[in-house]
Amino acid sequence: MRSLKRRLDALDRAANPPAFKPWHRIILDEGQSEEDGIAAYEAEHGPLGEDSCFFIRFISPEPRHA
Questions:
Q1: Three-class HEC string of the chain
Q2: What domain of life (predicted)?
Q3: Is the pTM of this model over 0.90?
Q4: Most buried among 4, 22, 38, 65, using CB within 10 Å?
């Protein structure tokens, strides 16, 4: 009976997955702080919200050759 209960619980979880949370990609320019990058992103796309998922990518300058 325990096996059947576990299988039914697994089916219930599969039928009711957690709410989808979209990912946001924030790209920082050279010299831009994380706070400034997030503020710029929110100004263009709207607020991220408390439980948003995002990652930040920093664009570094090209190395200078001597």
A1: CHHHHHHHHHHHHHHCCCCCCCEEEEEECCCCCHHHHHHHHHHHHCCCCCCCEEEEEECCCCCCCC
A2: Bacteria
A3: no
A4: 38
The verdict on residue 30 lying in a domain is yes
Structurally, how many domains does the chain consist of?
Answer: 1
Torsion sign, CA atoms 44, 49, 53, 59: positive
53: containing domain: 21-65
Say which residues have a Cβ less than 8 Å from residue 50's Cβ, sequence separation at least 6. none
